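Standup notes
- DV: blocked on the single-chain target, sequence here:
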Amino acid sequence: MQWRIRNQKDFAAGLIYILMGAGFSIGALSYRLGDPARMGPGFFPFWIGVLLALVGLVTAGTSLRRTAPVDPLKRPELGAMAWVLGGVVLFGLLLQPLGLVLALVALVLVSSRASHEFTWRGALVSTLVLVAFSIGVFVYGIQLQIGLWPAWLD
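- DV (later): unblocked, structure below
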């Protein structure tokens, strides 16, 4: 039987899942694993890595089926990746000095520029939803001690 990759996108995604899962599992081995009754700090990341690698195997395997749709890989859009990565880096840099709300505003507005369908209205709505969700979950839900606004506003 001849193996042929029909769906290159699924195959590439599967390989990424396998590599990331293996990386997490191998990294978790440097911590105590424990057992299900007494989990160590490496238990959860190890098994999540194993599950991620299994999902990768299934995903890559489905790309080899005869019935898989032919879907070639496209060239990565470096500009879009730069906008998203820039937004994440900016969030990390702004979180401490400006607080969660303004850092999230910067994250969403900068990352939104990666989309071909970018509109200011859509970006602002996304910002409001993410800010409300993040405050609800992180500040009120799990009571994370994080500044909402810059310290000089308090």
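- Follow-up: The chain has a mean pLDDT of 92.
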